[in-house]
Amino acid sequence: MPGHRAPWLPPWIEYADTNEGKALSTLARSLDARLAGALRERGFVADDARRRPHVLLVDGATACVGTADPDIGSPWPLGIPRLRMPREAPSRSTQKLAEAIAVFLGGREQSLMHEGQAAVDLGAAPGGWTWQLASRGLQVAAVDNGALAPSIARDPNVEHVRADGLNWRPKRAVEWLVCDILEKPTRIAALVADWLASGTARNAIFNLKLPMKKRRDEVLRCGEQIRDRLDAARIDATLAFRQLYHDREEVTGCVLRKR
Question: Into which CATH architecture does domain 90-257 fall?
Answer without folding.
Answer: 3-Layer(aba) Sandwich (3.40)
